[in-house]
Amino acid sequence: xxxxxxxxxxxxxxxxxxxxxxxxxxxxxxxxxxxxxxxxxxxxxxxxxxxxxxxxxxxxxxxxxxxxxxxxxxxxxxxxxxxxxxxxxxxxxxxxxxxxxxxxxxxxxxxxxxxxxxxxxxxxxxxxxxxxxxxxxxxxxxxxxxxxxxxxxxxxxxxxxxxxxxxxxxxxxxxxxxxxxxxxxxxxxxxxxxxxxxxxxxxxxxxxxxxxxxxxxxxxxxxxxxxxxxxxxxxxxxxxxxxxxxxxxxxxxxxxxxxxxxxxxxxx
Length: 268
Hints:
Layout: H1 2-6, E1 13-17, E2 22-28, H2 41-49, E3 52-57, H3 59-62, H4 65-75, H5 85-92, H6 98-101, H7 106-120, H8 129-140, E4 144-148, H9 150-158, H10 162-178, H11 180-192, H12 195-209, H13 211-234, E5 241-246, H14 256-262, E6 266-267
Parallel strand pairs: 2-5, 3-4, 3-5
Antiparallel strand pairs: 1-2, 1-6
Helix pairs in contact: 4-9, 7-10, 11-12, 12-13
């Protein structure tokens, strides 16, 4: 077990190509542990070969303190309502301040529950694969852009209907109630590049238990990203791009990988 823990993670990684350009699709885990670096050599090779990087959100914007402020401002309730009392009791069990969370909409509370639980297990957003690869891009002076802007992500989250927002909060509370075991199992699957385990623990579970949320955060966003990724493949010249997005977005029939394969691109 100790030897396995020290072995470099082998994240999900695909190469999608047309006649002259390639996309490397790298599945991210947004919060990671100090022992998760260095990564496997194939990730280093993909980074070295790519002239550009694309993330869900541009690294500079993701790291901006203003993003968290703007997100919290967008999530503030303006109608005088508060969280249901039963919900508040569940939140109290996570160790969070219920009085403060009462002021926010469900999508924001769900996100904070998930982040707080993961940080309690030692996971750190500053060590997430997005932040790590963004730092490497900055050091190597490689252009790094986003498939979405911070404003677009906030508008998307804040624009979810009440049912979708409540599903997001319910999913976060379910995960918190399950305890460390579920999160650590998913992290272990990510380290091992275990497609089936990640598929079962993210895509299949979300689609089965929270269908509205699955459609909103996975299907609709994947569909919106697809033409932007295809545009990279159609660019003139021989410029390859490393794309770093959450692993869930790459998997299953609704995932970016299968959608690009269905369009006739070569997928490795």
